[in-house]
Write a structure and sequence with these properties.
heterodimer, A: 278 residues, mainly beta, Double-stranded beta-helix, disordered C terminus, B: 361 residues, 2 domains, seven-stranded antiparallel β-sheet, six-stranded antiparallel β-sheet, 29 strands, 3% helix, globular
Chain lengths: 278, 361
């Protein structure tokens, strides 16, 4: 804060804006402090407008409140959290890789538990509280997507796709609307919803394969394979549509695609075999 | 011979590759490395612990070629005496000029390895190719042999003789789902191995007298002077569902033990995802996911550890509220992989289990 007043006219107050999460960084920084994206590498945007999620360099550190997260490995990255006292993260318990013994564990009570249990969603969201270290990873090759959430943001995430989230973020789940969406949407009945109210927070997702994001203008829409859907801003609507394939009387099959309509961000993953996670 | 840059076959009398123009390294030159000038290298009295060797390439200056002074030191990963003017450690293939990737919490990532890193075992070589699903390509000298489980064989030259190696305890192994026979390949000739998962290839050189405990199905290949044995882990729990009881072995019922008795040997493991290693001090403990364990020194003790989270008592499947860990206590090395299977039976009602500790938060 005081820096701005002190900086002399000769040395302009220079900051780098992270292209991925829009956080402001020190001029000399190599990776964004809030999301870990390399700052010295250009955005990779395809001609069709999909942007590749930044490949986080090995051992990059990310800060949130008094804690740090270190992203280790590049094949199946592990997120290692050094929790400050008073900080906590929540997650589905099967993603824990290792922990120090003193990290306290508790569970978050969720409304609609029975409904969730029947829907096959994790019945319990686990909470790890600092101080101490705990690390998370998933069961397949992919990328860690770090999404810092600013106050007022709402993010919908495919179920089971989130790795962990900091305690400032409120977790709930929304039912996927429409029978078509549920039956043919390639995911379950529910999506995880992350909302920040007061303080900024952090959500880390794991996408299978590579992850691409695009920002839809209001009313703009794009069709995606339902199984590839990873996350969206809650302002983006999702509808499943059928496309009739084949010709003639008997042949042909229906193909379902999800129509995503803006405004907002949409993220997809490139590996979309159905990964069953109990 | 082949061009080291593009793989095109080149004749002995050619000085440049006909395909890419890369200078051809002839056997005589290959023996004497190009002159390099070590820059103010500390005297060997100070044990050099450089993460990288401060070596610059001699420019095209007409200075008389200084004899390549070996910059000796120890490999960060396997501790072998190495010459830091070389790109990779000849024992384990670790890149010598890259800093070790060490996390703040003390896990070291299996070292960065340059693609095509070459390992030397006696008269044989092993080249590790590819970074995503790596292949171990052995060039076996006459009389040298390696053993492996047959499904990891990728290709071989026809003259490489493949035989089977009998293992003791065949029946027990069959019931345990372990490979019944190991396959042995004998030089001279080339043979290559890979597994079908993206992950790391971990070369673990064993000194004479050293041994290593490895979770089952991790072995890619080992040199034949490394003894292979297996033991019961003693880590189990029993679950009940209705009248059915089932015994589960979260780290496997058996574990492989590799031991180099008289001569040093090499064990090549393949683990999913990234691999992290740390050395535990005596009585230091760490909790790891049982299915994430890759290997440990025999001195490291294992036991089950249960954690019951605080804040909520659930009437609905109360045993769901429980985390299952493997508690490792030092001294010794432990390694974990970042890809792991789910623990079978973890969320069922457990009625009995092997020696375990528990914490209720």
């Amino acid at each position: 804060m005081g820096d701005a007043a002190h900086s002399s006219a000769a040395e302009p107050f220079e900051r780098i804006q992270c292209q991925w999460c829009q956080s402001m960084n020190e001029k000399a920084a190599l990776a964004c402090h809030a999301c870990g994206a390399p700052l010295d590498i250009r955005n990779l945007v395809s001609e069709s407008g999909w942007r590749e999620a930044p490949r986080i360099r090995d051992m990059t550190e990310i800060q949130f409140s008094t804690s740090t997260c270190q992203v280790e490995g590049e094949i199946v990255p592990a997120a290692e959290i050094h929790l400050g006292a008073g900080d906590s993260v929540f997650f589905e318990h099967h993603v824990m890789l290792w922990k120090e013994e003193q990290v306290a564990m508790s569970v978050m009570s969720l409304s609609g538990g029975l409904k969730r249990a029947f829907a096959g969603m994790p019945f319990i969201i686990s909470v790890a509280s600092g101080p101490g270290r705990i690390a998370f990873s998933r069961d397949a090759t992919g990328e860690l997507i770090v999404l810092p959430l600013h106050p007022g943001m709402e993010l919908d995430v495919r179920e089971h796709a989130f790795l962990l989230s900091s305690h400032q973020v409120a977790y709930s789940f929304v039912r996927v609307k429409g029978l078509c969406n549920i039956l043919f949407g390639g995911q379950g009945m529910y999506m995880d919803r992350f909302v920040t109210t007061g303080a900024p927070g952090l959500v880390i997702l794991h996408g299978y394969g590579n992850v691409f994001e695009r920002r839809l203008a209001p009313g703009e829409s794009i069709m995606v394979e339902p199984g590839a859907f990873l996350y969206k801003d809650s302002s983006v609507t999702m509808d499943v549509e059928f496309q009739r394939l084949g010709s003639g009387f008997f042949g042909g099959a229906n193909m379902s695609m999800a129509r995503m309509t803006g405004p907002g961000r949409v993220g997809i993953q490139s590996m979309y075999v159905h990964h069953h996670t109990e | 011979m082949f061009c080291v840059n593009c793989g095109t076959p080149v004749r002995e009398d050619q000085n440049f590759c006909p395909n890419c123009g890369h200078p051809v390294k002839h056997a005589a030159e290959a023996a004497a490395p190009p002159p390099r000038v070590p820059v103010t290298q500390a005297t060997p009295a100070v044990p050099p612990v450089p993460h990288y060797a401060p070596v610059t390439h001699a420019s095209a200056a007409p200075a008389p070629p200084a004899p390549a002074a070996p910059v000796s030191g120890r490999c960060n990963w396997c501790g072998a005496a190495v010459d830091f003017s070389q790109p990779s450690c000849p024992q384990c293939g670790a890149a010598l000029k890259l800093p070790a990737a060490l996390s703040e919490s003390g896990w070291t990532q299996v070292p960065a390895r340059k693609d095509m890193a070459k390992l030397q075992m006696g008269h044989s070589h092993c080249q590790i190719e590819g970074l995503y699903v790596p292949v171990a390509d052995f060039n076996l000298a006459a009389g040298d042999s390696v053993y492996f489980t047959h499904h990891v064989l990728l290709w071989k030259e026809p003259q490489v003789n493949v035989t089977t190696m009998s293992l003791k305890g065949g029946w027990k192994r069959m019931f345990a789902g372990l490979p019944l026979i190991m396959t042995q390949a004998e030089g001279p000739g080339r043979i290559a191995f890979s597994k079908d998962d993206p992950g790391e290839l971990i070369p673990v050189p064993l000194q004479a007298g050293q041994s290593l405990d490895v979770r089952e199905h991790m072995l890619l290949a080992a040199t034949s002077n490394v003894g292979y044995d297996w033991f019961q882990t003693g880590i189990w729990f029993e679950t009940q569902q209705g009248n059915d009881t089932e015994t589960h072995y979260p780290v496997g019922r058996y574990m492989d033990r590799f031991a180099a008795s008289q001569t040093p040997g090499l064990v090549l493991l393949h683990a999913g995802g990234n691999v992290f290693v740390r050395t535990l001090k005596p009585r230091q403990t760490i909790l790891v996911k049982p299915t994430a364990l890759v290997f440990k020194d025999p001195t490291v003790q294992m036991q089950l550890h249960f954690e019951h989270p605080g804040a909520l008592f659930s009437m609905w499947r109360p045993w769901n509220n429980r985390y299952l860990w493997l508690r490792l206590s030092g001294p010794g090395r432990v390694a974990v992989q970042s890809v792991f299977e789910r623990i079978e039976g973890e969320s069922r009602n457990m009625i009995r289990w092997s020696n375990a500790t528990a914490v209720r938060w």
